[in-house]
Each structure stands twice: as structure tokens, then as C-alpha cells.
Amino acid sequence: MEKDFISRPALLDRNDCVLVIIDVQEKLMPVIAGHQEILKNVLRLMRFCRLARVPIMVTEQEKLGPSVHQVAAEASGAPILPKVHFNCFLSPDFTHALETTRRNTLILAGVEAHICVAQTALYALPRFDVHVAADAVGSRAPDNRLIALQRMRQAGATITSTEMFIYEALQRAGTEEFKAALQLVK
């Protein structure tokens, strides 16, 4: 029995992950509850994914302005994908960019948790393993964020945190990558 347990861990494989940053935009972020902490965690995720060579995708909802400047700077080289639908999968640019990664585990972060993040997660679940970084998603009303996290969990998404994802992806201490990642979690 122990052998079966070891062969099927519930841990993610970073070589199968893609980070999706949803709508962290100039016109939207100031009205999001806890927006400063959310932005801090979004940036930590992006920096770690660069370090770990995990692909990053960024979406921007039409008419909400560009991504906040820190996200745009961290996204250097990553696709910034415009969209009009709340569900990212209804944007052909998004689905094409995701297909090119050949990854099956989505790490979701961004806003609003109960609209674009939730609709994207719920749509993805039949085909993808979905992880939502709870400390890197938000909504204008805190209750909407909590309800969205509950609904996504009930549908089969894994609710995680920024730090939990980082350590799970690292798998071990004592490496140069671990030392570099420590600067992100301190």
C-alpha cells in the first residue's frame, strides 16, 4: 500500500504548471479588498515562476486599463492577453497561448475571484488540474471572495497559498534555487 501512495502524490509537478494572472489592472485593483497584499502575492508568484521556469500568462479585461505597472514589468516576455469574456477560455488568444505551453496544471491568481477567476477555474476543471492561490485572489467585497473560494473548492479546485505553492514546487531545501526563492518568502 505504501508503494501506491508514493507513486500517486497529491502534490503538483511544477514541470506541468502554468501561472495565470487574471486582470490585475490599474482601474480595478484600487477597489479590490486587500489589494496591496494581493498584488504583493501576485508578484511573488510571478518572480518565483520566472526563477523556476514556470510559464506565465497575463490577461487584461477590456476597458479596465493596462495591467498594474509592477505586473507588466514582471510579465516581460510573457503573453499579455486581452479579453472581453469573464471566462478566460472563451478568448481564442488565451486558449492558443495555453495550448502552446503543453501544461495541464493551472495556478490561478488575480481578480475578481468571484467573476473571472471563478469562471475560468470552473470551466477548466474537467480538463485541467486547477490550483487557486487564495492569498493572491480578491474581490471588491470580501464575502464574494470567500464564496468563490468555497465554490471552486467544491467543484474540485485545490485552494492553496502563494507560499504553499512555492515550497511545493521547490520540493527541497539546500539548492541555489531554494536560496533564491527564500528572498521571495521572507
Describe the model.
This protein has 186 residues and is of the alpha/beta class. The chain has helices spanning 2-7, 35-52, 69-74, 92-101, 113-124, 142-155, 162-170, 176-185, and strands spanning 17-22, 56-61, 80-83, 105-111, 129-138, 158-160. A 6-stranded parallel sheet has the order 3-2-1-4-5-6. The longest helix has 18 residues, at 35-52.
Shape: globular
What is the CATH homologous superfamily assignment? Answer: Isochorismatase-like
Going by CATH, the architecture would be: 3-Layer(aba) Sandwich
Number of helices: 8
Strand content: 15-25%
Brief synopsis:
With 186 residues, the protein is α/β, with parallel strands linked by helices. Helices cover 46% and strands 19% of the residues.
Notable characteristics:
186 residues; alpha/beta; six-stranded parallel β-sheet
Write the topology of this structure:
Blueprint: H1 2-7, E1 17-22, H2 35-52, E2 56-61, H3 69-74, E3 80-83, H4 92-101, E4 105-111, H5 113-124, E5 129-138, H6 142-155, E6 158-160, H7 162-170, H8 176-185
Parallel strand pairs: 1-2, 1-4, 2-3, 4-5, 5-6
Helix pairs in contact: 2-7, 2-8, 5-6
